[in-house]
Design goal:
alpha/beta, 324 residues, nine-stranded mixed β-sheet, 9 helices, hydrolase activity, Rossmann fold
């Protein structure tokens, strides 16, 4: 492992994966070691048009003794290669290979017997699907930050006819781009060069997001269908979201006080589909990526995580592990 772009405290390693139709494929695992380890670990997975740059979030966990790992999935961030279509996969199951290999490093190589899986947005859909299928015995909890549990927008977008069209076009023309208007207000409200608080690589997380392809959206909608049918995870799960969404004309203030990406009502509606023990908390004034909210708001989010950890994970009250 070598030093990461986040600084010398963060170490990075490349995970080689089998090639896909575009050629070689890699994923990237970032690690932050705590000063006083408690024997537990966290594995974090980012969302769409994103990558791991959340040093404050990592240090919050490390300050509590957790070894923190973050995975840049294939075709995202540190893992994006020149010949690749950014973020494109035809099935969310494709990500299971790098999650498996990261998990092996965390549990077998590094010896962590209790691991919390953390994920944001699209990662918050992929990781529960992976956990449901794999049932790793070391998984003790899930923390999902604004997980993408359904298709936001008009009802027709969730209709059987639309799903059928996605299936057909996704099969015949998977790389056809879906036209959409994307506001840069959210990205500009985050990045420090545009008035925000955070520093990240705009070539890896563009202000204008990324193109959406039919085949990729088909994969996401298939994942939604699996979630809606009900997963059966037994570990305690925390679902964090903003208290409100806003889809009107965007300003910096709406972008910094609402989820302007996903519908938080959908998140709360489907939260119980993840498993048997789900805590859903809406944070007033939070944005889509809750831990990038304004300082006083993310302090509330961290307090909520801390209370939930103490009650259901670190106390051992529930005592439910996947595979047990």
């Amino acid at each position: 492992m070598q030093a990461d772009v986040l600084g010398p405290d963060f170490r990075v390693e490349t995970i080689s994966l089998p090639p896909d139709p575009e050629g070689p494929v890699v994923a990237t695992l970032v690690t932050l070691e705590p000063d006083s380890p408690n024997g537990r670990a966290v594995l974090h997975v980012h969302g769409f048009a994103d990558y791991f740059f959340h040093a404050e979030y990592a240090r919050w966990w490390a300050d509590r003794g957790y070894t923190f790992y973050a995975l840049d999935l294939r075709k995202y961030g540190r893992s994006l290669l020149e010949h690749q279509t950014p973020h494109y996969v035809a099935d969310l199951d494709e990500y299971f290979a790098e999650i498996d290999l990261a998990w092996w490093r965390i549990t077998r190589r590094d010896g962590h017997r209790e691991v919390i899986a953390s994920a944001h947005s699209t990662g918050g859909l992929t990781v529960p699907l992976w956990a449901h299928k794999r049932r790793p015995p070391e998984l003790v909890a899930l923390v999902l930050n604004s997980p993408w549990f359904d298709m936001q927008g008009a009802a027709w977008l969730r209709s059987p006819a639309t799903r059928l069209a996605l299936e057909r076009i996704g099969t015949s023309r998977p790389l056809q781009e879906i036209p959409r208007k994307v506001s840069t207000v959210y990205g500009r409200s985050l990045h420090r060069d545009h008035g925000g608080e955070w520093d990240y690589d705009l070539s890896w997380k563009p202000l204008e997001s990324r193109p959406v392809y039919v085949g990729w959206l088909r994969a996401v909608r298939r994942g939604h269908a699996l979630l809606h049918a009900g997963l059966d995870l037994t570990c305690p799960t925390l679902v964090l979201s903003s208290a409100r969404s806003f889809f009107g004309e965007q300003t910096e203030e709406t972008a910094m006080t609402h989820d302007i990406v996903l519908d938080v009502e959908q998140i709360r509606h489907w939260a119980s589909s993840v498993g048997r023990h789900v805590t859903s908390i809406a944070i007033e004034g939070a944005i889509h990526d809750v831990v990038l909210s304004r300082p006083e708001v993310r302090a509330q989010a961290y307090a909520a995580i801390s209370t939930w950890l103490a009650a259901w994970v670190e106390s051992g009250v529930l005592g439910a592990r996947e595979g047990s």
